[in-house]
Design brief:
Blueprint (H helix, E strand, L loop, with lengths): L2 H12 L2 H13 L5 H12 L10 H14 L10 H15 L5 H12 L4 H12 L7 E6 L9 E8 L2 E7 L9 E5 L7 E6 L3 E7 L8 E6 L6 E5 L1
Antiparallel strand pairs: 1-2, 2-3, 3-6, 4-7, 5-6, 7-8
Helix pairs in contact: 1-2, 2-3, 2-4, 2-5, 4-5, 5-6
């Protein structure tokens, strides 16, 4: 049994008729199954074998992708069924050499209103920059006061970010901390975690030379703000 038959057997056993027909159409467009084989599989999925027109595999692939791209809603999310179906078919057809993955991905991004591949990579580089927690510059103890059942234990200053450790239980399943300074710098969260008794958060960016203190606040709790001198 070849790989195309294996895939279709899995769809027949575990999937839906609609999913099986989608897989069959993609395989037929890629030239992985013949017209006669497709007719036999179609009969197994829906009980009727309708003959399909013979066409060049690449031509069928372009027609299939164009049809499925038209079904993608404008401003679509990445998890929508129409998007997943299109991307699945594109991956298969590109692997079979029947479609240009880059060109069709560009078309999908334009249709869905997403950033271009280059813009997405630039955004990833920006979000991944900083807060590496490698070059530790200072360990600053937190103030002794307890606010809203929380106490700021430590502030770790790195060359490219800030990390904080907070002790105390929270009513929030995922307490969110916001870090600012007296120079009106706002820091982006790069990571967080914790357990029932403590939490920690990391932030991108280093305080500017004009900053003299940091303010750590618990979102949604006006009474929970800690100030630490730099």
């Amino acid at each position: 049994m070849d790989r195309a038959d294996q895939w279709l057997h899995c769809e027949l056993r575990d999937g839906t008729a609609e999913g099986g027909l989608d897989a069959l159409e993609a395989l037929e467009a890629a030239g992985a199954v013949t017209v006669a084989e497709a007719a036999r599989w179609r009969e197994r999925f829906v009980g009727s074998a309708e003959p399909q027109p013979v066409a060049d595999a690449s031509e069928r692939a372009q027609r299939l992708l164009a049809t499925w791209l038209d079904s993608v809603p404008v401003s679509a999310r990445g998890d929508e069924p129409a998007v997943r179906r299109f991307q699945g078919a594109l991956g298969l057809l590109a692997a079979a050499g029947a479609a240009d993955a880059r060109a069709w991905d560009t078309a999908l991004r334009a249709r869905a209103g997403w950033p271009s591949a280059a813009e997405e990579r630039a955004l990833e580089r920006e979000l991944n920059a900083g807060a590496t927690e490698v070059d530790l510059l200072a360990v600053v103890p937190g103030p002794p006061d307890v606010r809203g059942g929380h106490r700021l234990l430590l502030v770790l200053r790195f060359a490219d970010g800030i990390s904080v450790l907070v002790e105390g239980e929270s009513d929030d399943d995922w307490p969110e901390w916001t870090l600012t300074d007296d120079a009106r710098t706002t820091y982006r969260v790069s990571g967080f975690g914790g357990d029932a008794h403590s939490s920690h958060a990391s932030f991108y960016g280093a305080p500017p030379a004009t900053a003299r203190r940091l303010d750590l606040s618990l979102d949604g709790h006006d009474d929970v703000t800690f100030r630490v001198d730099l």
